[in-house]
Amino acid sequence: MLSLATGVHAQTLPVPEVPSEETEPTDPTQPADVPAQKRPRPPAWDYEAGVGGTWDSNIGFVQAEGDDGVAVIPRASLSRVFWNPRGEMTLRASGRWVGYPDQSDRSRAYGSFGLDGGYRSSPRTSWRFGASYDLGYTDSSQVLQNQGVQLAVSETSTLAADLGLVRRLGARTSLRVGGRFFRTEFESPELFDGSSLRGTLSLEQGLGERSTGALVYSLENVMGGEAGDAYFTHYGSLQWTRVVTRRTALLLEAGVGFTPDAARAGLDRETSFFGGASLTREVGRSSLSLFVRHEVTPAFGTGVSRPQLRAGVGLDVPLGQKWEFRLGGTYVAAQEPDAPGGYPHSSDASGALVFRVARALAVSAESAYRRRGSSFGTPAIDGVSAGLYLTVRRPGPRVPRSPGRR
C-alpha cells in the first residue's frame, strides 16, 4: 500500500530532480545520485509495526463479480542504515499477513527483502546500487503494475537489481552508465515466467543555468514465453530537463524503440515512439509527481512485450502537524482490446489519510483500487479494498512548519 502504486521510478521512467534544500546547485548537471555532504546523519535503525482490518470487494480478481471478504492484516518493517560521509547503504525487510477469518484457504503472506544505497568514490564519480527479493502475489507486484499487467491473484516471486555510475567529465558534462534486472516467476502454470535485463548509456550536457540536454541509448534483453526464447529491443532518445522554478523541474524525452524480432515479441511492427514527459514539484514538505510515457514494455505472465501509453500521479501532502494525505495511481491505455493480440486498459490507485496520535503512534485509513478492462470477449474486472490501521513506528524528529518556496 505504501508504495502508492505509482511506478514513478520503475521501469525506465526518468524523473527530474529539483534542487536540494541543503545544497542549492548552480550547475544542473550535478549528479543527483551523489550523497549530499551537508545532510545530517540518518538514524541507524527504523521500524514500523501495525495491525488493521480491511474489506476487499474481489478477493481473487478472477471474474467481474468475485467474492468479497474482510481480512485482518498484521504488518511490520525494519531497516538498518550504514552511513559514512561518502555514502550510505540501507538494508530492509518487511512482511504482512492477510488473513480472512471466514475464508482461511484464501489467506496469504507477503515478504520483501532488499538493500539500496549510494557511494561517492571520488569527487567526480558516484555509484548507486540496489537489490530486492519479493515473495507475494500478483496483486502486490510493483513490476507487474508498472507493466500494466493486471492478473488474477496468484503466487509470485520477483528478483530486482540495479547498478549505476555517474562520472563527471567536465564542469557541465556527465556520463551515466546503468543497468537493471527483473525476474518474475509465477506459481500458476498458465502464466509465463519473465525476465528483463536492460543497460543504459547517457551523455549529459548543461545547456544553461537551468537546462540540461542528454543523448540516451538503452538495450534490453527480454526472456519469456512458452519456449523461453529471448529477444532484444533498442531505445535511442534525446532528453531535455528544465528547472522551471527552485522547486519545480520538467523533463521531456523523445526517441525511437526498435525490436528486430517483432513477431517473437508479439509486436505488430519493429519501430515505435519512445519517450514522454515528467514533472516534479515540491512545496514545503509536500511533493507532486506527474508523468506520461510511451514505450515498448515486457508484460510478464503473457510471454510477450507490448507498446503502451501510461500515465501516473504521486502526491504526498502533510496537513499540519498531525495529518498526512497520500495518493497515487497509474493508467495504461488499451490497444485494440477486442482483437487477437490486443490488450485491455488497466489502472490502479491507492490513497491513505494518516493521523499521528503521538510521535510513535498513527492511525490511517487506506484504500486501493485496480481494474482490468474488457478484452476479446472477457468482461472488465474491478477490485476495491478499504481498511483502517493502527501503526507504531520509530519516533521521528519534530518538523517545524514551513511556508514552502517558489
What does the model show?
The protein is mostly beta strands. The chain has one domain: Porin (Beta Barrel). The protein has two helices and 18 strands. The protein has an 18-stranded antiparallel β-barrel. The longest helix is centred in the middle third of the chain and has 6 residues. The chain starts with 44 loop residues before the first strand and ends in a 13-residue tail after the last strand. The relative contact order is 0.15.
Compact summary:
The protein has 2 helices and 18 strands. With 406 residues, the chain is an all-beta fold.
List keywords for this structure.
about 400 residues, mainly beta, Porin, 2 helices, about 60% strand, globular
Topology (SSEs and partners):
Layout: E1 45-56, E2 69-84, E3 87-98, E4 108-122, E5 125-137, H1 142-147, E6 155-168, E7 173-186, E8 194-206, E9 211-224, E10 230-245, E11 248-258, H2 262-265, E12 271-283, E13 286-299, E14 304-319, E15 323-332, E16 346-358, E17 361-372, E18 381-393
Antiparallel strand pairs: 1-2, 1-18, 2-3, 3-4, 4-5, 5-6, 6-7, 7-8, 8-9, 9-10, 10-11, 11-12, 12-13, 13-14, 14-15, 15-16, 16-17, 17-18
Q: What is the percentage of strand-forming residues?
A: over 45%
What is the CATH topology assignment? Porin
**Tally of contiguous helical segments:** 2
Order of helices and strands: EEEEEHEEEEEEHEEEEEEE
- What is the distance, rounded to the nearest whole angstrom, between the alpha carbons of the first and last residues? 31 Å
Overall morphology: globular
Mean of all residue-level pLDDT scores: 87
**Sheet with the most strands?**
18 strands, antiparallel, barrel
| Gross CATH architecture | Beta Barrel
pLDDT under 50 segments (min length 5)?
1-10, 22-37, 399-406
Tell me the number of strands: 18
Q: How many separate domains? A: 1
Radius of gyration: 22 Å
Please estimate the helix content. under 10%
**Class from secondary-structure proportions:** mainly beta
| CATH level 1 name | Mainly Beta
